[in-house]
Amino acid sequence: MAERILGKTLATVSLSVALASVTVKSSGCCSIPACRNSFLSCGFHLNSNIMSSSNGAKENSHNKARTSPYPGSKVQRSQVPNEKVGWFVEWQDYNPVEYTAVSVLAGPRWADPQIRNPAGRTGLIGRGLLGRWGPNHAADPIITRWKRDRSGNKITHPVSGKNILQFVAIKRKDCGEWAIPGGMVDPGEKISATLKREFGEEALNSLQKSSAEKRELEEQLHKLFSQEHLVIYKGYVDDPRNTDNAWMETEAVNYHDETGEIMDNLTLEAGDDAGKVKWVDISDQLQLYASHSQFIKLVAEKRDAHWSENSDAECRGL
C-alpha cells in the first residue's frame, strides 16, 4: 500500500544535491579557482554520503531523517535499517507511518505528494512539519571571526597549532539543540536576503527593535553581508523533519569578519526561534542540529582553522 502511495517509479526530482563549487564573491563577482578545487575534494564526502543512500545507506548517513519521535509530536516512524534505506532496494513490506502536522494541513497544498526523498526511506510519509511536498528551501548564514586575546592577538590551539575560529550559534527553542542561525526562504525571496534576515531575527533580535535601531542595525548588517563570502554547501540536508515525501535543502554561506570590527559593533541578542545566542569555538567536539556540524567543519577547513586535536581526523572525510 505504502509503495503504491509513493509511486512505483522514482519521480524526476531536480535537486542541487551536489556541493556547490566554492566561489569567493564580492561586488565584483570574482572567483578563485584554487579555492574551488580544494573544496571539491573535501566536499565529495558529504555528497557521496547522500548519494550512497540510493543503494543502501552508510552507517553514518541519513540518520537524523530516521529518528523518532518526529519533532513536535509523539509519532514513531517505522524503523528503516541501513540496508533498506535506498529506494532501489526492494522492500515489499515497507509500511511507513503517515503524518502531517495539523498546522501544515491548514496551509496550502503545494505539489505532487508522490515525489520521493532523494536520500531514501525515512519510515514516515506525508509532510510532517514541512509546508511543501518535495524540497523545502532554507538558508544558513555562518558568521565567523578569529578568537583573540585581550591584546587583540589571534589565539592558536596548543595541539594543532592552528588559529581558533568562532561562529555565532543559537539554541533552538523547538528542540534545545545548538545550531547555525537560519530559516526558510520566503516565496519569491532571494537567498542573500534570507541569509541577512534570518541572522538579524535570530541572532540580533531585529524584530523587536525600534525603527531607529533597525536602521542602525541594517547599516551594520549591510557591511557584513556585502563583503566576500564562501558558499559552503548547497543541497539536501539530513534533517529530523524529513519524510519520504518532503525534505530540507539548504544553502550554507560563510561570512567572515577578519578583523572582528564589524561584529564588535553588533550586540548578540536571541530572538524569533532562538532561545539563546553566543560565540562558539569551532572544533570537532561540537554537537549541532541536523547537518550543521558538517558545514562548520567545511568552514574550518576553508579558513585553515583549528578543527581537531587528532591530526588523522583532519585528513579524513566527513
TrEMBL record:
Pfam families: NUDIX, NUDT9_N. Residues 1-20 form the signal peptide. The keyword Repeat does not apply. Its main location: secreted. It comes from the Eukaryota. Residues 146-302 form the Nudix hydrolase domain. Residues 200-227 form a coiled coil. The gene is NUDT9. Keywords: Coiled coil, Disulfide bond, Plant defense, Secreted, Signal. SUPFAM superfamilies: Nudix. This is Nudix hydrolase domain-containing protein. InterPro entries: Conotoxin_a-typ_CS, NUDIX_hydrolase-like_dom_sf, NUDIX_hydrolase_dom, NUDT9, Thionin. The lineage of its organism: Eukaryota, Metazoa, Chordata, Craniata, Vertebrata. It is found in: Secreted. Residues 54-77 are annotated as: Disordered.
